């Protein structure tokens, strides 16, 4: 059954009689513009910026440790807060990238290339303004795409059957394995590991109790948010212990404000760097849509493309404002882009989206077409809230940036590490008031740390954990439907949508090998 | 520990994990094992391919290089091990001591240990005071504002 098209959604007199998008947007705006939600957007943005500005604290960690604070909030309030934290954290990473040449989050690696040289030349304020304007515009672009692309994609998802959901899960794992750091094979092994962990407990079809090893408490399975907190926070926390001495450079944080720089820089970016803004926004949004690829990839791709398109590529890396604009625009565009597959298919586009997926589950919200129909008021309020946080970042960053830099400089790693530890413990306990969750959080944290030392990236594991139930339900249902055919696996391959998804899986799996074969061929031709 | 050795050790550990799960299948319905069995078989094939790649591949892929060497590396590994032990004890004592006491002790222990000023008694006092402040702020936020009860401790409860 096809849903209403985009045109029908936008026109107020839609023939299908459904609620048009503009009406949902108006409803979302009304829900968002309440004192409570506006305060939460502001608070979330500020908390995200502080976390993002601290080297060693990733956006994923920031969202994960703040999840417990949303448990007793309404779904709208909780999601709006976390969306603002996410957007703020990605932007906050630019401060440390510019001021101390250390990316606050992996999404700001590229910002160091030109941002820090600008700071060394006494142009730190110009770099911060460029990062702010780029982040705001990129963030807004991503959210606009989220608002207008998600509903039609959700309609396409209505055509998905069990087999298609299975292949979507497989595609998610193959693409994240090829895009994440390390070997493709190890990424796939990690994805399978995550999928196996998701089978602990009661099977979704059949009711088998699996892999509990005689512990009744394990019958409920492993709580997703507990695992996410453990896998994303504990390894980073332990890495901070190792890198602790390197944090002393934060004493160099700081910059002065000069009259006229704000206006001059903003005007230059908006009037003369439009191509850069559009290109970087599109790159960030598209990369955000790809499961597992986040701002860490987007900012580098956007930087390279800006350099290639520039008439003065030799200036990149010397303190060129175009470089800062490219990276910061793209990494914030990822925020909206990554939520497109999350809200429509339940496939997180970037690691922080995995945490937001867990929160959606906690609030009883199932990603998919339902979010854009019966739960549209919550969804549109959330999307608009993320967009609002991109705007709130501007005055907070411009006028509060120096204060932020000073606060972050004073915060010692000796208090940061136990601070994160206590938040992870209270967070994992607060989900179900269960001590086992705290123990599991720490166990998975240590496992995640160990696996990282053994070259297994966390992202495929997390995606396997999230997509495991989706893949299992799809596979088993397809098997059951296929029992009417000579082979029960027939239904996995019969639908043209399945062929497209299978082809995408094959391409994403083989792409890195094609790339390295091409490099070797070019190398041998040169010789 | 070089990168190829880490690759092989990682593969061996994953293989052991699959073996443990395979030996503990015990499904009661025909449908309960379709997905886990398929994943375990696929995972075994991928691990085998990864192992073969580690033996014949030109270079191992690293996602994190440890650039610390010699004494510094040993010191940092020791620091990390101590923090891991403190975290483990903190979690195990969470139930019996309660959130407040376990929080203050755990927070202060980690802060004091990684501060590098272990012989300075002022650091101990500062760590305890900051630990108390953080713990009580969180208790206020979760207990009163968010209405999420935190454990009082079996000793005191």
What's the arrangement of secondary structure elements?
The complex is a heterodimer of chains A (527) and B (157).
Chain A: H1 6-10, H2 21-32, H3 35-53, H4 59-66, H5 75-100, H6 109-120, H7 124-158, H8 162-179, H9 184-198, E1 201-202, E2 209-210, H10 224-243, H11 261-272, H12 274-289, H13 295-309, H14 321-345, H15 351-362, H16 376-410, H17 413-432, H18 435-453, H19 458-481, H20 496-526
Antiparallel strand pairs in A: 1-2
Chain B: H1 3-23, H2 34-56, H3 70-115, H4 121-145
Offer a quick outline of the entry.
The complex is a heterodimer of chains A (527) and B (157). With 527 residues, chain A is an all-alpha fold.
Short descriptors:
heterodimer; A: 527 residues; mainly alpha; two-stranded antiparallel sheet; 20 helices; B: 157 residues
What does this molecule look like?
The complex is a heterodimer of chains A (527) and B (157). Chain A has 527 residues and is mostly helical. Chain A contains 20 helices and 2 strands. Chain A has a two-stranded antiparallel sheet. In chain A, strand 1 and strand 2 form a beta hairpin. Chain B has 157 residues and is mostly helical. Chain B folds into 2 domains: 3-56; 70-145, no CATH class. Chain B has helices at 3-23, 34-56, 70-115, 121-145. In chain B, helix 1 runs antiparallel to helix 2 (34-56) and helix 3 packs across helix 4 (121-145). The chains are: A mainly alpha (527), B mainly alpha (157).
């Amino acid at each position: 059954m096809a849903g209403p098209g985009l045109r029908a959604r936008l026109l107020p007199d839609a023939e299908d009689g459904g609620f048009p998008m503009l009406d949902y947007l108006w409803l979302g705006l009304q829900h968002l513009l309440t004192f409570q939600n506006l305060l939460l957007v502001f608070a979330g943005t500020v908390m995200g910026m502080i976390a993002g500005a601290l080297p060693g604290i990733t956006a994923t960690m920031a969202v994960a440790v703040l999840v417990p604070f949303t448990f007793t909030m309404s779904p709208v309030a909780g999601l709006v807060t976390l969306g603002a934290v996410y957007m703020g954290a990605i932007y906050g990473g630019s401060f440390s990238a510019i001021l101390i040449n250390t990316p606050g989050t992996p999404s700001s690696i590229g910002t160091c290339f030109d941002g820090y040289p600008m700071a060394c030349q006494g142009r730190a304020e110009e770099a911060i303004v460029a990062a702010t304007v780029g982040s705001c515009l990129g963030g807004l672009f991503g959210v606009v795409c989220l608002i207008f692309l998600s509903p039609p994609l959700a309609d396409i998802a209505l055509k998905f059957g069990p087999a298609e959901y299975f292949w979507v899960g497989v595609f998610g794992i193959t693409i994240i394995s090829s895009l994440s750091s390390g070997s493709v094979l190890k990424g796939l092994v990690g994805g399978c590991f995550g999928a196996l962990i998701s089978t602990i407990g009661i099977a979704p079809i059949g009711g088998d109790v699996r892999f509990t090893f005689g512990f009744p408490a394990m019958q409920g399975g492993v709580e997703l948010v507990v695992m996410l907190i453990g896998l994303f926070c504990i390894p980073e926390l332990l890495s901070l212990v190792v890198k602790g001495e390197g944090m002393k450079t934060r004493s160099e944080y700081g910059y002065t404000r000069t009259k006229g720089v704000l206006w001059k820089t903003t005007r230059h970016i908006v009037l003369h760097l439009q191509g850069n803004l559009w290109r970087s926004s599109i790159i960030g949004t598209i990369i955000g849509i790809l499961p597992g690829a986040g701002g860490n990839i987007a900012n580098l791709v956007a930087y390279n493309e800006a350099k290639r398109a520039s008439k003065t590529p030799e200036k990149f890396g010397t303190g060129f404002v175009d470089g800062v604009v490219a990276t910061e625009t793209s990494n914030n565009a990822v925020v909206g882009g990554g939520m497109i597959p999350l809200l429509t298919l339940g496939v997180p586009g970037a690691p922080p989206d995995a945490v937001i997926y867990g929160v959606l589950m906690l609030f009883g919200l199932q990603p998919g077409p339902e979010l854009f129909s019966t739960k549209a008021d919550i969804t549109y309020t959330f999307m608009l809230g993320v967009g609002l946080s991109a705007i709130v970042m501007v005055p907070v960053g411009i006028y509060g940036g120096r204060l932020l830099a000073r606060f972050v400089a004073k915060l010692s790693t000796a208090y940061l590490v136990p601070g994160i530890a206590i938040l992870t413990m209270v967070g994992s306990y607060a989900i179900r008031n269960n001590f086992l969750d705290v123990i599991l959080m720490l166990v998975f944290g240590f496992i995640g740390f160990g696996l990282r030392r053994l070259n297994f990236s966390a992202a495929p594991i997390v995606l396997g954990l999230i997509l495991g139930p989706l893949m299992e339900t799809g596979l088993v249902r397809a098997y059951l439907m296929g029992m009417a055919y000579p082979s029960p696996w027939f239904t996995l391959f019969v639908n043209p949508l399945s062929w497209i998804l299978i082809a995408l899986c094959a391409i994403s799996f083989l792409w890195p090998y094609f790339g390295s074969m091409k490099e070797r061929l070019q190398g041998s031709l040169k010789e | 520990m070089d990168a190829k050795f880490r690759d092989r050790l990682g593969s061996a550990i994953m293989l052991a994990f699959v073996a443990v799960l395979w030996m503990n299948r015990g499904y009661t319905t025909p449908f309960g094992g379709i997905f886990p069995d398929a994943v375990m078989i696929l995972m075994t094939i991928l691990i085998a391919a990864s192992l073969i790649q580690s033996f014949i591949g030109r270079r191992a892929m690293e996602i994190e290089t440890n650039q610390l060497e010699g004494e510094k590396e040993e010191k940092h590994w020791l620091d990390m091990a101590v923090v891991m032990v403190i975290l483990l004890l903190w979690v195990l004592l969470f139930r019996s001591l309660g959130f407040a006491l376990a929080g203050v002790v755990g927070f202060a222990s980690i802060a004091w240990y990684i501060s590098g000023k272990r012989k300075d008694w002022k650091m101990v006092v500062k760590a305890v005071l900051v630990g108390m402040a953080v713990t009580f702020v969180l208790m206020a936020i979760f207990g009163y504002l968010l209405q999420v009860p935190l454990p009082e401790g079996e000793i005191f409860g």
